[in-house]
Amino acid sequence: MLRDLTSVVVWIQNEDPLMSECLIYQLKPGQTMVGRLDSEKPAAIRLSGESIVEEHCYFENADGKVTLHALPDAVTFLNGRQITPGQAYKLRTGFRIILGEHHVFRFNNPEEVRKQRDRAAARSNLSISATAADFAAAAEESTRPGSPTSSSVDLNDVDWNFAKREAAFARLGLDPALDNLPDEDLNKLFEKITRVKTLRDHNAKRPESSLSQADDIWSESGRPTASDGLTDDTSVDVVPSHDSPDIAGSLDSVQNQLENQRHEFEQRLQSISESAEAEDIKAEKDQMEFQLNLVKTRMKKLLDARARGEDISEELQFEPQIYTARQLRLIRKVLDKWRAHRAFSMAEVVLSNAVTVKEANVMSRELHKDVSYNFTIAAGGSLSAPSSAVDTMAALDQLGDVADPVLASTTQPCVAVKVVDKRNRAIYVWSLDRLQQQLQRMRNLTSYIDRPAYSQHFSTSEPFYNNPTPEYSFIGNALVSLAPLARRLSSTSTVPIFCRYTAEAIGSCRVELKIANVVLSPKHANSSSTSTRASSPVPGTVPPGSKLSFVLTVDTVKGLSHHDFAAAHLQVRLSSLMGPSTSAEEVYPSNAIEFDTHYLSDLKFRRSFSIAASSKVLTHLRQGYAPIEFFARLEPTYLERMERWDEMRDQKALPRPELSPTPETIPPSVQLMRRSENDFVTEQMHDVVAWLQICELAPTGDYTPVPVMSRGNIDPGCFTLHQGLQRRIVLTLSSNSGKQLPWTEVTKIRLGNIRLLDAKGRVHESSSKVLTTLPLMKDQQVEWKPDGSGLLTAHALWDSSVHDSILLNKVTAAHNRVLMQLEWLVDVESCADPVRFSMDVAVSIQFRDARPPSRFFSFIGSSKILPKMSTVFNVRLSPPLTRSPQELWRLDTSEKYVRGEETLGAWKPRGISVVEDYEKLVTMERRSADVQAIRVVLNAMGNRGPPSQSGSLIWKSEELSKKALDLWQKQFGHKGQIVLSQTPADSERTSLSSTSKTSVAASVQSLKFTSQSKVVPRTDNYTRRGHLLMLVDANENIWERRWFVLRRPYLHMYKHSDELEEVAVVQLSGVNVERSPDMEALLGKRFTFTLFTASNSYALSAPNQKDLQTWMANLDPTRVPS
């Protein structure tokens, strides 16, 4: 499109942004008439539509200045206002013009834009001086109305929508800038409108007094005068003369206009004060966008599947479900109710992680760290991980990782770990993720204890404690209901202080919530002034948009002993009073008092709060509670009592002696015995070694493995391939778990995601990211060896041309590699779904006749030529989370053996009693707070006197009593309670027949695990290497000489000392090494020792006594020499 860039034009705008500015009308010097398309009168611009007249308007261009003239009986808008015929309106660049009802234009004057740019450049160059012309130009620019342009919205679309909006506001008599008016002006305007409405209602009964009262309405601010120009939309521009005979009709028109504006103002004020509707619209928009993304993802998957040639006939039709705002609120409410019932899931977490807590306590006892770990329940929200604000003000949180991010972000109750730190006299809480991280650091202390060069880099105290430890520990909280505040009632109550670790009351305090002031919103302030609810016994709730001011006072603290605490303070969080909707968290602490120099009654708190009562805040006030947190410096007696309480609570939770079968009641044929570990369903950890080979077609017709070039122990290797040859992939999986990991076959192998790794280590993405399924051959082999290990071998056909990647077709440059993602699925009998493995494979494409790499380079450098690629995977099998309460005891791992647990004595981690205590604590806390809140409401009703009722209602005592009895007898909450039990039922515990054992085994086997695998990083550091004899077949007494390399936490086995062909990998976590002379005599080998792991055992023989002692010390550094 070509045009003169210096000419004045009008661009036509369209509702479709793609059609905007496609039609341009040039305004030549002189007059340019706008008329109707089918008119015979001459016109330069012809438009269609019923609202366009034959001579609608005309543009006049004189010396570069363009004016717009409207003609009679023509609808013409300029910047949203209808212009008056017979007057000239000067146009500036960006002005919006609407002709009729559907034709929108944007005026553009290039010379004006160029002058503005020159003036802006001059002002930037001469920023110090300013001329009168500049101020005049700035004044001219300021006369142009602001355009609502935004960088995130299309300008054409904005012009169309904003112009239509301006025209609609102008036609309705509304001011687009009403939202910017101050509250004071809005209140005055609303009062005037209300007085006019009252006058109109009164005139309907007394028409003779309408004139006199109408004169008094505007007397407060003066009578409006007529104006020749445009007036503000909120004023009256037509003032009838007192001598006019049509004064009544003029007043009615004014009242009608004000009445319409009043309705509009009420709607706007309501939208400003109440944000519930806006929140609903936002929720609906988010839900629709989510459904749209689901549809897009679904379509993308279908298109990708169709591109790969997969069958999509079984794909079901997917229709997005759009919910209304009310449906979304109901769904959210139901989901929140269901999420609140977490007792069963928390019990599962406690039982399945008991062995982890036990291992942490074993290491603490062995290293004499004076710290113990046990389970607790962390409440969601502000009580998930409470920390003292006094410590925060001391800048302790800037010196280390004080806050646990997992606990800080949780909104629902979850299982956590209570740390009783007797060395630093503190109690704090860790999440289970934090405990796992700290436990790995604890293991490092024992794993590298024999390597001072590495152990010196590990802190001996950091894994066991918080760094830094808090000075004040959380000891309990008092819970107060906020319901009286929502009803504009002050309250004073004595609240118990509950310890969240023992679920018992340790003291009490007096809490006073006193209403200071309630500033209502303008809408509710006017409605409340005319309300006639004088007979209501209880004041109304705080309306949305109001400002609530109250004073919180906490004093008269009792029960905290100086034998347990050295100092104490309390604090209140802003989120506790306003709910989770608050943007920034603020904590208000009291002064800390020393028990040696102060009385407990000196512990006080008083602070005034002023909050804006939005819809979310009011919901929290009606339904929520505010915890008042108490912190103290602990004494050793308190820490010891916490440990003893855990032990006594677990003893109470054990079955009573009379429930256990006595020797007199046990049949002679039944003997009491320890329950088999096979009856329990716990998380399993397995290590799988994957050996990969790529075979190419040889001249003999056989498929031979290609060499793998490795640059060191860290490098897994790179396959050297040739162009244009048929290939096969051989995948061999090995596991020392044997039949504990009962795999059956490889169900799928996929290859794809081709990338280039250049010589500088940079990875270049490729367009071939799709994983292509490779056809599997039927001859898969599953082998269970006599040494307890298992092998699985699968073959797949690979045609590299299906990837359509240039990287696999051309020769790879020197020092470059082609990376591919290999993924395969293994079917395991004990898993619900196949186990997924994934890793990267590196290849290098050579000429077809290129020779294989020479082995001579392996002698002069660190490079090696390997026959296969080796990768170690860690497979985690987790039990499903959905099971019946009768099977809950099978998840218990507290009886699982941990090396060194003898140091714990009779100590055991807490069981499901910790969940029961938390449920009891929540019930007691909220019931106590609700009773105090109801007492306040009833007292308010009693003080206002009984409501006035008729005699017939007062004497209906029988019906009222029946209704009260029905409410007392009605059961609320769950109809059936889930009983959590850590031990099996009595019938299952006493029945030990073969039939019951078979049924129990069948029920255990029916439980399917969920799997997760990850690649174990490779390491080049080794502790020891050397030759050992290994018993591979105990029945035939066959020993093999192998090369062992200890790279923690694995022990690698090779056929030869060149470490080229790997045969097995052993996991050393929880290893136990034993030596017995009887075992040497039985096996007929000297210097023999046994290596016990979590999944298997190995009999090894050293060459001499010195190597025997060295290997045993390196394999188990914590073992005490005999």
From TrEMBL:
<dbReference type="Pfam" id="PF12423">
    <property type="entry name" value="KIF1B"/>
</dbReference>
<dbReference type="Pfam" id="PF12473">
    <property type="entry name" value="DUF3694"/>
</dbReference>
<keyword id="KW-0547">Nucleotide-binding</keyword>
<dbReference type="Pfam" id="PF00498">
    <property type="entry name" value="FHA"/>
</dbReference>
<protein>
    <recommendedName>
        <fullName>Kinesin-like protein</fullName>
    </recommendedName>
</protein>
<feature type="domain" description="PH">
    <location>
        <begin position="1021"/>
        <end position="1120"/>
    </location>
</feature>
<keyword id="KW-0505">Motor protein</keyword>
<dbReference type="InterPro" id="IPR022140">
    <property type="entry name" value="Kinesin-like_KIF1-typ"/>
</dbReference>
<feature type="region of interest" description="Disordered">
    <location>
        <begin position="201"/>
        <end position="250"/>
    </location>
</feature>
<dbReference type="GO" id="GO:0005524">
    <property type="term" value="F:ATP binding"/>
</dbReference>
<dbReference type="InterPro" id="IPR001849">
    <property type="entry name" value="PH_domain"/>
</dbReference>
<keyword id="KW-0067">ATP-binding</keyword>
<dbReference type="Pfam" id="PF00169">
    <property type="entry name" value="PH"/>
</dbReference>
<dbReference type="InterPro" id="IPR049780">
    <property type="entry name" value="PH_KIFIA_KIFIB"/>
</dbReference>
<dbReference type="InterPro" id="IPR022164">
    <property type="entry name" value="Kinesin-like"/>
</dbReference>
<dbReference type="InterPro" id="IPR011993">
    <property type="entry name" value="PH-like_dom_sf"/>
</dbReference>
<dbReference type="InterPro" id="IPR000253">
    <property type="entry name" value="FHA_dom"/>
</dbReference>
<dbReference type="InterPro" id="IPR008984">
    <property type="entry name" value="SMAD_FHA_dom_sf"/>
</dbReference>
<feature type="domain" description="FHA">
    <location>
        <begin position="32"/>
        <end position="83"/>
    </location>
</feature>
